[in-house]
Design goal:
The structure holds two protein chains of two kinds.
Chain A lengths: L4 H7 L1 H16 L6 H26 L7 H17 L4 H25 L4 H20 L4 E2 L2 H8 L7 H19 L1 H11 L1 H6 L4 H27 L1 E2 L7 H12 L10 H21 L7 H26 L9
Helix pairs in contact in A: 1-14, 2-13, 3-8, 3-11, 3-12, 3-13, 4-5, 4-6, 4-11, 5-6, 5-11, 7-11, 8-9, 12-13, 12-14
Chain B lengths: L4 E10 L2 E11 L4 E5 L6 H8 L7 E6 L2 E2 L5 H6 L2 E4 L11 H5 L15 H15 L14 H14 L4 E5 L7 H16 L3 E5 L3 H7 L2 E6 L2 E7 L5 H9 L18 E10 L3 E9 L3 E6 L5 H8 L7 E6 L2 E2 L4 H6 L2 E4 L3 H5 L6 H5 L8 E2 L4 E2 L1 H14 L16 H13 L5 E5 L7 H16 L3 E6 L2 H7 L2 E6 L2 E7 L5 H8 L7
Parallel strand pairs in B: 3-8, 3-9, 6-7, 7-8, 13-20, 13-21, 16-19, 19-20
Antiparallel strand pairs in B: 1-2, 1-4, 4-5, 9-10, 11-12, 11-14, 14-15, 17-18, 21-22
Helix pairs in contact in B: 4-5, 13-14
The chains are: A mainly alpha, B alpha/beta.
């Protein structure tokens, strides 16, 4: 049975939208369609891509992780303190990822062990994380040593290091999802949790794992964001949870679980969002418009998600007779 | 030789209420055991214990002669027990091969890395064994219910199961698929599997099983070789008393006044030139095999799916719009899947019952719900549909299948509809409740309501209908008045016609 054009169009919507945005801004602004700008967009998108990869894992199980931005903040705060205190860079990096993993572990415990609704559990860790972060940083901005900025500035093989890191995480994420039993289990779990349990899948461990993965990605994403900014402000990492969810869903991951891919979907989603904002800057759009644009993008992403689900549901209708 | 499975003295209570009270049974390798009993007799609980979903309070189990106490479904699987659940447990968003290998993917180089080629190849072999001609890398969501059932069994075979538990395996199957499944079970039996076959289709149980265990109220009410039982004696054991005839006496058909007229209804690849007339007070059956388009016809009549050509008239006036408008005109629809579409499982019985006609239970001017009237109506309907042991505050999901269906009927009959459409109204419902539902439908038809019953069970339709239409491949393949109800003729009319070229 061939898939109807409408569904294929909806499935290709992120990519088509991406092309349309590039065309639109490319014709409006001379500086937009340049290699330098592309590299710039990629570098900007890198932290979001990494956090969104983790978010995709969580969304596949029909969960959500609102705490990623807060985990980035704690990690950055502690890493900043360590760096200022003179610890070598690798220590700070390891600590950031470890904090992400630990925070993800708390989420995992709350959701898989105590059965809290993911939305509420991770909302709680979001607030706890923000509070802890402010306590650690004493609500002051911290400027970091040069060594941190070097991560963001180095360009092996012509692309910034964060871009390579994001690409590596995305490729690894997709490999895990499509070629390992663990990845396939996540799809089963997202489609039918009770069925997955009855099939003998370790559902609790699976759920716990996605929050730990999301936390680790938040730690790594936080590191890259920190390397770009070179400073920890009290608002560090804010709204990253929404950026990551938007990127995943815009790319084609379903909020209802069981559907979505890291590559190309989530990555396209993240790049699309960053490209739009880069384009707005290049055509010197009114900054007050940005929140409205963000809202439109989120709305669009969710609308496409539900349209796709509805259409897919219609398709499950059987073909009863073959008409000439 | 050791029994493949022996259960002894199994007891289980939920919240202090005993559900299983000392059950003992045995299945030998290469034999099929039929497990029958009314809904709530404890069949599912017993099998969930064997399948590792529940732990017994007392009693012991042995598998192949070794003591066995599964704590999880995975334990049961390791011991070679495969459970094909009543509600299918395949994952629609995975491929057939992935579903077949879910817990034991072939791996590359011993790494947690799926060998996709091997998985698809092995999957294709398993599909060939169950006689399913689909590609193994196809997504399961694109299969029909019957095809999924075969995939489930293929999965059990692939898992090297020694004991296969089938819970109501034929309820979602049409006659052809049903036959294919039964012959497949025989092959598996010959290959030495022990099979436990749970079903309400008693004639099927007697046809395929070697021995039968009858459960009643959590106890073994009777056991023995299948040849020593008849459908009547099984039913008698199940209910604990001689039952009256399952089907109500033949009724005088209503007058010939047309109520619902369908004219040349068409929708590409779904329905072709369907015309039918339902008369006032008539019980009209629609028979057909799986995928003949019966449910789709019902959905179109109720305004859930569109049709591109043709008209539907109710009392001479065109019927249009969605379900809300059509309910307003007096249509009611009891869907095929009561848990999914028919009920809010978490909500109490009373809320489910009053859902459709809640607006009629309000008080002006603010249109607030009139609690007293609501309670009175719920009590009236509960008596009307013989809903016993189901207090109004109980969540609908906690009721047995038969009682759930009665809640759905009560919901529609709160204000008697002009036309009642029922899709598989007694699927998975025990004998006692079935008889009550049939009687209820007859009483309703006697008041002038036109009743359209869709069913895969010929016996049911010939037992309760005044007239039967047969559908095949999205069109009407035949019409049979009561005096021409011949099983063979009806079935023949339902078989697909091979399209030439």
């Amino acid at each position: 049975m061939p898939r109807p054009l409408a569904l294929r169009l909806l499935e290709a919507a992120p990519l088509l939208l991406f092309l349309a945005v590039i065309l639109l801004f490319g014709t409006q602004s001379a500086g937009f369609l340049t290699a330098a700008n592309a590299a710039q967009i990629l570098a900007q998108a890198a932290p979001t891509v990494i956090v969104a990869v983790g978010m995709t894992f969580v969304l596949l199980t029909a969960g959500v992780d609102l705490s990623v931005g807060a985990l980035m903040f704690i990690g950055a705060g502690v890493a900043g303190l360590l760096a200022i205190a003179g610890y070598p860079l690798p220590v700070s990096i390891a600590v950031m990822v470890a904090i992400g993993v630990a925070g993800g572990g708390v989420n995992a415990l709350l959701v898989s062990r105590f059965g809290l609704v993911p939305f509420v559990a991770t909302l709680a860790t979001l607030y706890i994380g923000r509070g802890l972060g402010r306590w650690i940083t004493e609500t002051r901005a911290m400027n970091l040593p040069e060594s941190f900025l070097m991560i963001g500035a180095s360009e092996p093989l012509g692309l910034p290091l964060p871009v390579w890191a994001a690409a590596a995480v995305a490729v690894a994420g997709q490999c895990v999802l499509s070629t390992t039993p663990f990845g396939r289990y996540l799809y089963a779990l997202g489609a039918d949790p009770e069925g997955a349990r009855k099939a003998g899948l370790p559902t609790r461990r699976l759920i716990a794992a996605v929050y730990v993965i999301s936390g680790a990605c938040a730690g790594l994403g936080g590191l890259l964001a920190l390397a770009r900014l070179g400073a920890v402000s009290p608002r560090f990492g804010e709204f990253y949870e929404f950026d990551a969810i938007t990127a995943s869903v815009l790319g084609g991951t379903s909020l209802y679980g069981g559907r979505g891919r890291v590559l190309p979907d989530t990555v396209v989603g993240a790049l699309l969002v960053k490209t739009i904002f880069s384009g707005l800057v290049s055509v010197q759009a009114d900054p007050y418009l940005y929140p409205l644009i963000t809202a439109t993008i989120i709305f669009l992403a969710v609308a496409v998600d539900s349209a796709r689900s509805r259409l897919a549901a219609r398709l499950t209708r059987r073909v009863i007779r073959v008409d000439a | 030789m050791n029994a493949a499975v022996a259960m002894a003295g199994i007891e289980k209570a939920f919240g202090g209420v005993p559900v299983l009270r000392g059950i003992t049974l045995e299945v030998a390798p290469g034999s099929i055991l039929g497990l029958v009993g009314e809904n709530g007799a404890g069949k599912s609980t017993l099998m969930n214990i064997l399948g590792g979903n529940l732990q017994p309070d007392a009693g012991s189990i042995s598998v192949g002669g070794r003591p066995f106490s599964p704590r999880t479904p995975a334990d049961a699987r390791t011991a070679g027990i495969a459970f094909v659940h009543q509600e299918l447990t395949l994952f629609g968003n995975l491929t057939i091969a992935e579903n077949l290998h879910l817990t034991r993917f072939p791996r590359r180089w011993g790494l947690p890395w799926i060998d996709r080629g091997a998985s698809v190849r092995q999957g294709a072999d398993l599909l060939a064994r169950v006689g399913l001609s689909q590609r193994a890398d196809m997504l399961v969501e694109r299969l029909t219910a019957g095809e999924r059932q075969l995939v489930e069994i293929a999965r059990a075979i692939g898992a090297q199961a020694r004991v296969l538990i089938l819970d109501e395996p034929t309820t979602s199957l049409g006659a052809v698929e049903r036959g294919r499944l039964l012959s497949l079970l025989r092959e598996l039996q010959d290959a030495g599997l022990a099979i436990i076959f749970i079903s309400h289709e008693l004639s099927e149980v007697l046809q395929i099983c070697d021995s039968v265990v009858v459960l009643r109220d959590g106890q073994v009410a009777g056991t023995g070789s299948a040849s020593t039982f008849s459908v009547q004696s099984l039913v008698a054991l199940m209910v604990g008393r001689e039952v009256r005839q399952l089907y109500p006496p033949v009724r005088a058909p209503g007058n010939q006044e047309p109520l619902l007229e369908v004219r040349r209804l068409g929708e590409p690849s779904v329905a072709h030139e369907i015309s039918l007339t339902l008369h006032r007070g008539e019980m009209l059956g629609v028979f057909g095999l799986m995928g003949a388009g019966r449910s789709e016809l019902a959905r179109m009549l109720f305004g859930l799916d569109r049709h591109t050509s043709g008209d539907v008239l109710l009392e001479g006036r065109p019927l249009s719009g969605g379900p809300a408008q059509r309910i307003g005109r007096g249509l009611a629809f009891v869907t095929e899947d009561r848990r999914q579409d028919g009920l809010c499982l978490e909500a109490p019985v009373a809320d489910n019952m009053t859902l459709v006609h809640l607006a009629a239970l309000t008080r002006t001017p603010l249109r607030l719900i009139n609690r007293a009237a609501l309670r009175a109506e719920v009590a009236r309907m509960s008596t009307d549909v013989r809903l016993t042991r189901a207090p109004p505050h109980l969540p609908a999901g906690r009721l047995s299948g038969g009682n759930q269906q009665k809640v759905i009927l009560a919901k529609w009959l709160l204000r008697p509809p002009r036309v009642l459409i029922l899709d598989e109204p007694t699927r998975g419902i025990d004998v006692g409740a079935r008889g009550e539902i049939y009687e209820l439908l007859h009483r309703l038809a006697d008041t002038g309501t036109g009743v359209l019953v869709i069913s895969s069970e010929l016996e049911e339709l010939t037992g309760i209908c005044d007239r039967i239409l047969v559908m095949r491949q999205g069109e009407i393949g035949g019409e049979f008045p009561r005096d021409r109800f011949v099983r063979e003729d009806l079935l023949r009319a339902a078989l697909p016609v091979r399209v030439s070229g």
